[in-house]
Amino acid sequence: MRIAVTGASGFIGSHLTRYLSERGHEVLRVDVRGVERPVDVTSFEQVDRFFSEHRPEAVVHLAAIANIPECIRDPRRCFEVNVLGTLNVVECSVRYGVSRLIYASSANVYGVRPRTPVTEDEQLRPRSPYDHTKVAAESVVMSYVVSKGLDAVVFRSWKIFGEGEPETSVTTRFVDACLKGEPIPLYNGGRDVTDPYHVLNYCRAVELALKTDGISGEVFNLGTGNRVSIRELAELIRRLTGSSSELLDLPPRTEQEREPMISYPSVEKARRVLGYEPVIGLEEGLKRLIAWRSSLCPRRSS
């Protein structure tokens, strides 16, 4: 299958393009940089030209500004990339006969304290500009499903981690602190609760959704179904690295974050409909990340 992956140069996109290529698919890498022919998804002309020339059979739309502080600083740019960019991609997907589009949304659309475990019919309570762009982009996708016959599904994903993730990611920050013997900062006491899971689980879900018939218009939660607090995550990483790093309780970074986010998914729908099961558990995924960061960030000698 000829599959276009937008945001192909990013953390998830890099893993996904390699994963799909290794399974015999022809992968078309789409990004604003880091590819042979850059495409800015906010430019309809560039997106249309790409689709016209390459005619992908399927699209995985990952391209977005996912940095929440950046979205707060510049919400206009966030909406341009995350919503207008999605509109351009889905419009061209219809024009050029794409057989399946997967849109990468976020668990953030559910808000701070949804009913847990979160199911796909939970009320949406977006908080930050980033969250609102994901809700708006989902609406764009679904409007094309209903009015234009686009075959598309939406993934609402919890915390993805793995080798190559941004250094600002909580998992990498904790791993690096442990490897260096430095304190592990726990903002708001590490009270937030999420479901961190390795990126290869996401890649597996994409593979399943690309070949499952009769799922257009469906929304799927992705994670493992586990409930892990940020404090528990720090303690686990400290144990896996054999570190004696101190857990440093800090106040919330913003007043908005004073109320902890307690959110973890039910993945029963993905299991039932897609046949999804996590292929890498939390500890195994963290061990892979630790090994990778160790090669870049040698442990401080005692």
Question: How are the SSEs ordered, and which strands pair?
Answer:
Elements: E1 2-6, H1 11-22, E2 26-30, H2 44-54, E3 58-61, H3 68-73, H4 75-95, E4 100-106, H5 129-148, E5 152-157, E6 160-161, H6 170-180, E7 184-187, E8 193-194, E9 197-198, H7 199-211, E10 219-222, E11 228-229, H8 230-241, E12 247-250, H9 268-274, H10 282-296
Parallel strand pairs: 1-2, 1-3, 3-4, 4-5, 5-10, 6-9, 7-12
Antiparallel strand pairs: 8-11
Helix pairs in contact: 1-7, 2-4, 4-5, 6-8, 6-10, 8-10
Summarize the structure.
Helices cover 42% and strands 16% of the residues. With 302 residues, it is an alpha/beta fold. Helix 1 crosses helix 7, helix 2 runs parallel beside helix 4 and helix 6 packs across helix 10.
